[in-house]
Amino acid sequence: MYTQSARWYDDIYSFKDYAAEADRLRALLEERLVRPGGRLLDVACGTGEHLRHLRSHYEVEGIDLNESMLAVAREKLPGVPLQHADMLDFHLGRRFDAIVCLFSAIGYLRSEAELRKGIAAMAAHLEPDGILAVEPWFTAEAFFPGWLNGLFVDRPELKLARMTVSQVDGRVSVMDMHHLVGSDRGVEYFVERHELTLFSQDEYLGAFAAAGLSVEYDPRGLIGRGLYLGRAPRH
């Protein structure tokens, strides 16, 4: 995943409007009675950009499996609890009013069984009546193999190009991300492979239901990929 590229992740995704995404997320949570000041956990928090915009509204924490990404997050979010943990089997010993898993990180789970296990682990950390918000990866029908994507950074101190041609292997989307980076470290070239499962909407809905959550689907979501919103039972 994002190991070698972690230090440049925020540069690569500088086009993302994290502030607007956080505002949209807050509106969706407040509509479901998650009030400002509540406890919020970001699962697969990455470099912490969503948390950076949410921390003034909630008591926030984050977990991620990638230590390189967590190192970046810790630099920008001093005082915020950030733990190295796997979304499949984390145990924090406390519950949250809202849990979010954003930017399609859920797609890195490899099977429907893992999807159900991951959603169940998140649901187990919800307070009664708490909300779980999961931003999905594409379904098989919405993913286009052969799509060429390029992202570029051009600043005096950093020149970066990342190019990818998407592929599909069974139910898995495969993206070999080729990076060419010029900085004060010299010029580097490396490839990172990303494999994300093309879960169906029924599989997402089934995973929420199996975890004991009532669920609704917002097709707009934060960036057009949709958003699943599950609610824990009150008792």
Write down the domain tally: 2
CATH class of the largest domain, anyone? Alpha Beta
Gross morphology is globular
Q: CATH superfamily membership of the largest domain, which one?
A: Vaccinia Virus protein VP39
Give me the strand/helix succession: HHEHEHEEHEEEEEHEE
Number of helices: 6
Structural category is alpha/beta
Summarize the structure.
The chain is α/β, with parallel strands linked by helices and 235 residues long. It has two domains: 168 residues, Vaccinia Virus protein VP39 (Rossmann fold, 3-Layer(aba) Sandwich); 51 residues, Single Sheet (S-adenosyl-L-methionine-dependent methyltransferases).
How would you portray this structure in words?
The chain has two domains: 6-139 and 199-232, Vaccinia Virus protein VP39 (Rossmann fold), CATH 3.40.50; 147-197, S-adenosyl-L-methionine-dependent methyltransferases (Single Sheet), CATH 2.20.130. The chain is built from six helices and eleven strands. The chain has helices spanning 9-12, 18-31, 49-54, 67-76, 112-123, 201-210, and strands spanning 39-43, 59-64, 82-84, 96-101, 126-134, 148-155, 158-169, 172-183, 186-197, 214-218, 227-231. A seven-stranded mixed β-sheet has the order 3-2-1-4-5-11-10, sandwiched between helices. Strands 6-7-8-9 form a four-stranded antiparallel β-sheet, with no helix packed on it. Strand 8 (172-183) and strand 9 form a beta hairpin. Helix 5 packs across helix 6 (201-210). The relative contact order is 0.16. The model has no long low-confidence stretch (mean pLDDT 97).
